Amino acid sequence: MRVVLVGPPGAGKGTQAARVAARYGLAHLSTGDLLREAIREETPLGRLAQGYLEAGELVPDEVVTDLVAERLSRPESERGFLLDGFPRTQAQAVALLDFLSRRGQRLDAVVLLSAGEEALVRRLAGRWTCPVCARVYHEASRPPRVAGRCDDDGAALVQRPDDAPETIRRRLAVYHGRTEPMLAEFRRRGLLHSVAAEGDIETTFARIVETLEKVRREA
Ligand code: AP5
User: Fold this and answer.
1) Which has the closest alpha carbon to 214: 194, 199, 200?
2) Does ligand 1 lie within 6 Å of residue 200's CB atom?
């Protein structure tokens, strides 16, 4: 299966993508995680991307599309993939569809996670991440066993710099201005499936699985 998970910041894309990829044996590709890894490792890509991430702006299309094309060309993506955070502009959507069509492949579904702005801000403001293994927690809905420490490796949890209140507002504006308009093309192609993501993590996961099972039955 080839699936895109899309939605505003804080909708739960990363949280759900990890579970869905595990459930269906898909390669999980998060452009946000790849960019943050490049920043941590101080690669040329990381140096280029850092300012954009910190400001809540999108990294230029051609940079991200090249990154994704390289990853999707790897053998592990052959068994199917789940894209998390890509595409998020019309140009990226066109690039993805062209890339797949050149390879004789098609996209099976675009799952849109939707939640109200109040819930999104609450989730982002309470998010804590392990700098070592990238595991994501929430101080209320998914707390670590020991406050401030990762369950897996004990590292001190950190908050993402782009989860500062003014940057959250900018990321939401960028989503409305640049990502939402992209959804029309997927809707026109009958690929877009909207899933309410206001509920708890398990409820949302069950809804996504229900949607993907329906897509598989109708394929
Ligand atoms: P990216 O990392 O993709 O960030 P985002 O889209 O803003 O999304 P988030 O990671 O903030 O949220 P999420 O939806 O994954 O939520 P999560 O599961 O963590 O991108 C970051 C930046 O990289 C961009 O701003 C841009 O600069 C750049 N970039 C990335 N892709 C790009 C592209 N394609 N083109 C150009 N630039 C790109 O959940 C959030 C919190 O809520 C967590 O604490 C979690 O535990 C909690 N939570 C999750 N679900 C629930 C639930 N159901 N109930 C209660 N709590 C929940």
Assistant:
1) 194
2) yes
The pTM of the full predicted model, rounded to 2 decimals, is: 0.95
Q: How far apart are CA 51 and CA 46, in angstroms?
A: 9
Q: Is 141 exposed, middle or buried (0-12, 13-18, 19+ CB in 10 A)?
A: middle
CA-to-CA distance for 2 and 99, rounded, in angstroms?
13
Pocket of ligand 1 contains residue 109 by CB under 6 Å: no
Closest to 85 (Cα-Cα) out of 135, 125, 35, 123: 35
Nearest CA to ligand 1 atom 12: 10
Which residue is closest in CA terms to ligand 1's atom 23? 32
194: left (phi over 0), alpha (psi -120 to 50) or beta: beta
- pLDDT of the chain, 219 residues: tens digit per residue: 999 999 999 999 999 999 999 999 999 999 999 999 999 999 999 999 999 999 999 999 999 999 999 999 999 999 999 999 999 999 999 999 999 999 999 999 999 999 999 999 999 999 999 988 889 999 998 999 999 999 999 999 999 999 999 999 999 999 999 999 999 999 999 999 999 999 999 999 999 999 999 999 998
Residue 171 catalytic? yes
With a 6 Å cutoff on the Cβ, whether 64 touches ligand 1 is yes
Q: How many angstroms from the chain centroid is the CA of residue 14?
A: 5
